[in-house]
Design goal:
Elements (H helix, E strand, L loop, with lengths): L8 H5 L3 H12 L3 H15 L1 H17 L6 H25 L1 H13 L1 H6 L7 H20 L3 H13 L9 H25 L15 H11 L6 H16 L2 H7 L6 H13 L3 H9 L11 H13 L3 H15 L2 H9 L5 H13 L5 H10 L3 H11 L8 H11 L4 H17 L3 H6 L1 H11 L11 H11 L4 H7 L1
Helix pairs in contact: 2-3, 3-4, 4-5, 4-6, 5-6, 5-8, 6-8, 8-10, 9-10, 10-12, 12-13, 14-15, 14-16, 15-16, 16-17, 17-18, 20-21, 20-22, 21-23, 22-23, 23-25, 25-27
Length: about 475
């Protein structure tokens, strides 16, 4: 049962309305956002239309503002934006859906200007603006606006989509537009893209240091050109219409593997597997790098669709052998006849032990799991393992400790040595725990094989790192 002093709605109700009102007045002193929120709640309690008017006035004020929002006021500004959005979506929509429809589009129209005058390199303001796309779809389901109205509003939003905040609008609103509406939208966007862009006259002026910081932060969110925004919108329309050829025509970089994969997925969805495979084959391959996962997956899907299952299996197996991505081996084995899969699994996992990067090989064998092979890998190649990869090696040691204590001990030793080799005192202190783990494991091992017995290893450690005083104080 929660304490009566726990801050929750039930406990606050016991204070009474009058006392809570006084508290809110006191708390809101000097806090513009809190005052504004309280006024909005009062307006909403009087009538939905009054709440809508208050929100409209606030959005108009935000749109008219030209001052830059610095980091000190950024959090409050972002909260204010999100409050307006939520009130539109949650309160106004319930009582006055038509008003909420107008308001959410007024909110969306603020996007470019609001993002440009904030020094928000994290993209938080953009996220708030982008979340309004889902609100627009939710409100449209209630308000049922005319198709022409939606076409007009979406076109304006796409022409002012310099930071990608409105990218989700077309996919989300496509069901309300229908095929005819999408075709009209495409025509409207092409017409708008051909109109001249009005640019305000500028005059040179000195740039202050704080303004340079704002400009640097805005560079973190790259501004699109109108042509780029138009292309993104037309791609979304092509997807919504299922017009694969229109999508392909807009992809100037079809030679890139990632783009070829996007094209192939759409062709496969349209039942054009042969064309999908051609698109994938036309992609340029850089011999220094692996093809991206999405390209490999699309190729496998295309081969399967063409009933070229043996080739698909070859792609899976080759991908596993080049990357040790376990999903490809699991998918390969799943399609083999019974007993054949067991033999193939043993053969492939045996090859893993010779993988050039011993840490990656260990992670695969531990995760598979094949603990016996993992233990043998450690015993054979522990000196090749990077002890600075402490998280991975510690996890492996924990998995191996009960059945293969020698392998677990060798991993703990490797971590200790890597940390003591560092010049960081924090690393020396962090070496204490794996050392104590190794001490504990050593008590259960009689035969260390070709590796140093624990007492000899400890003496060598003391000779090599005698001056790591923080470490030695921690272990004795």
């Amino acid at each position: 049962m929660a304490s009566k002093t726990t801050l929750n709605a039930q406990n606050l109700e016991t204070l009474g309305a009058a006392h809570l009102a006084r508290l809110l007045i006191e708390i809101s002193e000097g806090n513009a956002n809190t005052k504004r929120r309280l006024r909005l709640e009062l307006a909403g309690s009087e009538s939905p239309s009054k709440l809508g008017n208050e929100i409209r006035k606030r959005l108009t004020a935000i749109g008219a503002a030209t001052t830059n929002v610095g980091w000190r006021t950024l959090k409050g500004f972002r909260t204010d934006l999100n409050t307006q959005r939520r009130l539109i979506a949650e309160q106004v929509t319930t009582a006055a859906p038509q008003d909420s429809h107008d308001l959410i589009w007024q909110f969306i129209a603020l996007g470019d200007a609001v993002i440009e005058r904030t020094s928000d390199a994290s993209g938080g303001v953009r996220e708030v603006m982008a979340s309004a796309c889902q609100d627009a779809a939710t409100i449209s389901a209630v308000a049922r606006p005319a198709v022409d109205d939606l076409v007009m509003r979406i076109t304006a939003a796409q022409m002012a989509n310099s930071y990608g905040q409105n990218d989700a609008l077309i996919p989300l609103l496509a069901p309300f537009l229908g095929e005819d509406g999408l075709l009209r939208l495409r025509a409207a966007i092409l017409a708008a893209a051909g109109e001249p862009v009005a640019s305000p006259a500028t005059r040179p002026r000195p740039v202050k240091r704080w303004r340079k910081r704002v400009l640097a932060a805005s560079e973190a969110l790259r501004k699109r050109t109108r042509a780029e925004s138009t292309r993104v919108a037309l791609l979304a329309i092509a997807d919504a219409l299922g017009d694969v050829d229109a999508f392909i025509a807009l992809m100037a970089d079809a030679y890139l593997p990632a783009t070829a994969a996007q094209i192939a997925h759409r062709l496969l969805k349209a039942g054009r597997a042969t064309d999908a495979l051609k698109a994938l084959n036309s992609a340029r391959q850089n011999p220094r790098f692996e093809m991206p996962t999405e390209w490999i997956n699309a190729r496998i899907e295309a081969l399967e669709a063409l009933d070229r299952k043996d080739e698909a299996q070859t792609v899976r197996l080759e991908r596993f052998r080049r990357t040790l991505q376990p999903d490809y081996l699991r998918a390969y084995l799943k399609r083999l006849p019974y007993f054949d899969d067991i033999e193939a699994e043993d053969a492939e996992l045996d090859l893993v032990k010779a993988w050039p990067d011993a840490n990656v090989a260990l992670a695969l064998l531990i995760g598979w799991p094949s603990l016996e092979r993992a233990a043998q890998l450690v015993i054979d190649r522990v000196r090749e393992m990077d002890g600075n990869d402490g998280e991975r090696l510690t996890y492996a040691a924990d998995r191996l400790s009960s059945r293969y204590p020698l392998a677990a001990l060798l991993l703990q030793r490797q971590i200790v040595e890597a940390r003591l080799a560092s010049f960081s005192e924090a690393a020396h202190e962090a070496a204490v725990l794996p050392f104590l783990e190794a001490e504990s494991l050593a008590r259960h091992i009689d035969d260390f094989g070709r590796h140093d017995p624990h007492d000899i290893w400890r003496k060598k450690l003391a000779n090599t790192y005698a001056r790591r005083t923080i470490f030695w104080k921690g272990v004795f």
